[in-house]
Amino acid sequence: MVKVEEAAFICQQIRSHVMQGEDYARFAVLYRTNAQSRVVEEAFVQSGVRYRMYGGLRFYDRKEIKDVLCYLRMIYSGDDISFLRTVNEPRRGIGRTRIAVLKEYASMRNCSLYTALMDNLDTELFRRSRAKEYVRMVEKYRAIYAGMDLTDLLAGILHESGYEDMLRTNGEEERLDNLAELKQAIYDFSRKAGEEVSLGNYLDHAALFTNMDQAERSQAVKLMTVHAAKGLEFPVVFVVGLEEELFPSAMCIDSMRAIEEERRLFYVAITRAERHCFLSYAKSRMRYGKMEFAAPSRFLKDIDVRYLRLPGQMAYTQREEPRASIFTKIQSEAKPTFTPSAPRNLKPVAAAAATASSQNVSLSVGQYIEHERFGLGEVLKVEGEEDSAKALIRFENAGEKQLLLRFARFKVV
């Protein structure tokens, strides 16, 4: 599954249990980093699942997200709220004294604060600030935003405003992660909206998730990071994003001590569940328009298969050491190994008859392929070589997909 499907699966499970009489408060969703909450929150809002953030803010209520959305609103409409939030963020020497002057000027002439600033750019008070840089950026993008891709617009504003550089200089890694997730949110919106995409449409879409009333604490699904969940327990827990470089974090991969700490954190996550614990990962994630393939977290392999129920109730056989524990230590204990048994309604197929992959087939633009999952599609673009070769395919029933040819299962037609 991809991360959107992961969120949809959670919604489906929760709504199914609620229809059977369960209370929303019996469920919790845990993730490694705050940025991961965005997809789950959007899925909950669209599905009508009541939720509440525990120990943190909703994605669209976080400071950096509000700041950047206000930058976009300044380009689109230039309202006073967006102006006050962006004009001195990062600092441009336009503090309380200068803002007070602008408010008085705007009140006397019945104009916006942005117009007041433009009228006063050459006065002694504002020549000593960086107000002209701000106005120059706003005017530049007001003139061209209508013809720009939304992701390019956002990237340009983050760069020219200095906002992203400010976060990097201050070492605000979590806020940078949230901005990366916002970029992905805008890309996802643009892809779904197609020809109807515009800055105004996106701002209307984002408004659906801002300034929402928090549900009653006793009647809502709880969303939180694993760190925030320490000491808490819930009847049903979903632990999401169990992928390499996410959980465990990419920053921990080169340190055995850090990996062990991540493993302890994973133990914390699954032991928050009193009755049921759902573990999920995405096989691929779209990031900035590119499909990135993910590997399941190494921690999943530490779980004794006897304690797992796999999707579709697939039959698995296992060979394991006596007295195997739920968790085994890497390089010190033998891990359980398991081999899937073929479902009864399928005939075994020889490996030689498998569908072609890029290892023995080269593609060129204009060719048609038939993919095992997505069906018939036309090759739009091919890039990379050997194991890193990728192709952009427009499928008749699944839209555009970028495939890593090394793993893609298809045949040329």
Write the H/E string, N to C.
Answer: HEHEHHHHHHHHHHEEHEEEEEEEEEE
Spatial strand arrangement across the major sheet: 2-3-1-4-5
> Could you name the ranges where pLDDT drops below 50 across 5 or more consecutive residues?
313-359
Summarize the amount of helix as a percent range.
25-40%
Radius of gyration: 25 Å
Shape: globular
| Number of E-state strands | 14
Number of helices: 13
Helix-strand blueprint:
Elements: H1 3-19, E1 27-31, H2 37-47, E2 51-53, H3 63-76, H4 80-86, H5 96-109, H6 113-119, H7 124-127, H8 131-144, H9 150-161, H10 163-169, H11 173-193, H12 199-207, E3 221-225, E4 234-239, H13 256-270, E5 273-279, E6 284-287, E7 290-293, E8 316-319, E9 337-340, E10 368-371, E11 375-383, E12 390-395, E13 399-404, E14 410-412
Parallel strand pairs: 1-3, 1-4, 2-3, 4-5
Antiparallel strand pairs: 6-7, 8-9, 10-11, 10-14, 11-12, 12-13
Structural key phrases:
413 residues, alpha/beta, 5-stranded parallel β-sheet, 14 strands
Description:
It is a single chain. With 413 residues, the protein is of the alpha/beta class. It is built from 13 helices and 14 strands. It has helices spanning 3-19, 37-47, 63-76, 80-86, 96-109, 113-119, 124-127, 131-144, 150-161, 163-169, 173-193, 199-207, 256-270, and strands at residues 27-31, 51-53, 221-225, 234-239, 273-279, 284-287, 290-293, 316-319, 337-340, 368-371, 375-383, 390-395, 399-404, 410-412. The strands form four sheets. Strands 2-3-1-4-5 form a five-stranded parallel β-sheet, covered by helices on one side. It has a five-stranded antiparallel β-sheet with strand order 13-12-11-10-14, with no helix packed on it. A two-stranded antiparallel sheet has the order 6-7. Strand 6 and strand 7 form a beta hairpin. The protein starts with a helix and ends with a strand. Mean pLDDT is 82; it is low at 313-359.
